[in-house]
């Protein structure tokens, strides 16, 4: 990339109940951020969507197509950092988190799943859902 490189680290989606209403605003904010970077002379931007661990429609379309085009129109080169997807380091980290959680629940005698996971929707008649809840309640036994 060029002499001036900006690593614009943006979480392009936010999680959580209070943040849901802001999600629709994120693309506009990100496009505004690109315009602001261009206005102060940046020519190269790397998008690092830290809220996304794998490629999906938003990263593949919005970032890779829309933002790249927006950057071109502003005279910039815009690229996206590769997602973690099936990176062995990422998969190992997830496996370690699950293993640690299960070890803690064995020691504490707690359920390996959250209370919320065990809840069923009011009036739920889905047999697969019921089977899943029974399986988790018995630790898969």
Instruction: Tell me the number of helical segments per DSSP (H or I, 4 or more residues long).
Output: 5
Uncertain runs are 1-17, 19-25
What portion of residues is helical?
A: 40-55%
Order of helices and strands: EHEHEHHH
Beta content: 5-15%
Distance between the termini: 55 Å
Mean pLDDT: 79
Largest sheet: 3 strands, parallel
Based on DSSP secondary structure assignment, what is the total number of beta strands?
3
Shape: elongated
Q: Please compute the radius of gyration using only Cα atoms.
A: 21 Å
Explain what this protein looks like in three dimensions.
The chain has 141 residues and is mostly helical. The chain contains five helices and three strands. The chain has a three-stranded parallel sheet with strand order 1-2-3. The longest helix has 21 residues, at 88-108. It is elongated. It starts with a strand and ends with a helix. Mean pLDDT is 79; it is low at 1-17 and 19-25.
Tags for this entry?
single chain, 141 residues, mainly alpha, three-stranded parallel beta sheet, 5 helices, disordered N terminus
In short:
This protein is mainly alpha-helical and 141 residues long. It has 5 helices and 3 strands, in the order βαβαβααα.
Question: What's the SSE blueprint?
Answer:
Blueprint: E1 5-6, H1 26-39, E2 44-47, H2 57-73, E3 77-80, H3 88-108, H4 115-118, H5 127-137
Parallel strand pairs: 1-2, 2-3
Helix pairs in contact: 1-2
């Amino acid at each position: 990339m060029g002499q001036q490189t900006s690593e614009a680290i943006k979480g392009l989606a936010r999680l959580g109940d209070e943040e849901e209403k802001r999600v629709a605003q994120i693309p506009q904010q990100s496009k505004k951020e690109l315009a602001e970077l261009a206005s102060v002379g940046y020519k190269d931007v790397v998008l690092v969507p830290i809220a996304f661990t794998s490629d999906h429609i938003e990263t593949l379309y919005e970032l890779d197509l829309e933002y790249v085009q927006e950057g071109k129109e502003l005279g910039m080169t815009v690229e996206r950092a590769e997602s973690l997807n099936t990176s062995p380091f990422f998969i190992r980290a997830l496996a370690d988190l699950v293993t640690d959680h299960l070890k803690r629940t064995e020691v504490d005698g707690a359920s390996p799943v959250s209370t919320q996971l065990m809840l069923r929707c009011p009036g739920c008649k889905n047999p697969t859902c019921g089977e899943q809840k029974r399986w988790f309640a018995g630790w898969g036994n």
